[in-house]
Amino acid sequence: YEMTYQDVEWHKEDGHLIERRVLDHVAGDSKEDLLRGHLLTPIAPTSIYMIKKSLFERTEGFGEGPTGQDWHLMLRCIEAGGKIGYMPGVYVWQYLHDGERLSLGKNKIQGERERHEYVKAYEYLLDAKEVRYVEFRHNAVLMFACARSGMFVQALVYGGRAFGVSPCLCIKEAAKYVRSKK
């Protein structure tokens, strides 16, 4: 492989588990499998990547943006035809500190909106159910970003949009999120 990715855990500074994300959703390691998987549920954050310098140099690297540089890097590595594989398990714990972070607030909201525009350009690869999931997930991410930033009215608006896209997905993903915290 030229690049591998793994599952991830986010912990508070005191070690308390916040969330565990298992990234076993990609059907295979072909370019199309990786692209579809990355569009549906991002293969990120950066801390889960191991990448050969030669592949990194075939891309534009991280690029610029308010957030989501890791998402764009993975997209460019897939588009560059990198041989990318999944390593099941958590080998890196990511600690989230209190206070300002790129992944919070207006940066996160702007970055998610920009990332979603990129995803829309690839919707031709997805079936109707997958497009609905992408729309649901986009609104759910914005709901969480707004809630974490104290923007509760906007969080309710995005939560309502997510529910409007698919009430079933709201229930299913809420249950999955609760299980990931255990």
Q: What string gives the helices and strands in order?
A: EEHEHHEHHHH
Shape field? globular
Strand percent estimate: 15-25%
Distance, first to last CA: 32 Å
Structural class: alpha+beta
- Note poorly predicted spans: none
Mean pLDDT: 89
Can you count the helices?
7
The level of helicity is 40-55%
- Radius of gyration, CA atoms, in whole angstroms: 16 Å
- Strand runs, count: 4
What does the main sheet amount to?
Answer: 4 strands, mixed
Provide a short characterization of the protein structure.
This protein is of the alpha+beta class and 182 residues long. It is built from seven helices and four strands, in the order ββαβααβαααα.
List the helices and strands and how they pair.
Elements: E1 3-12, E2 17-21, H1 31-40, E3 50-51, H2 53-58, H3 69-79, E4 84-96, H4 105-120, H5 128-148, H6 152-165, H7 167-180
Parallel strand pairs: 1-4
Antiparallel strand pairs: 1-2, 1-3
Helix pairs in contact: 1-3, 4-5, 5-6, 6-7
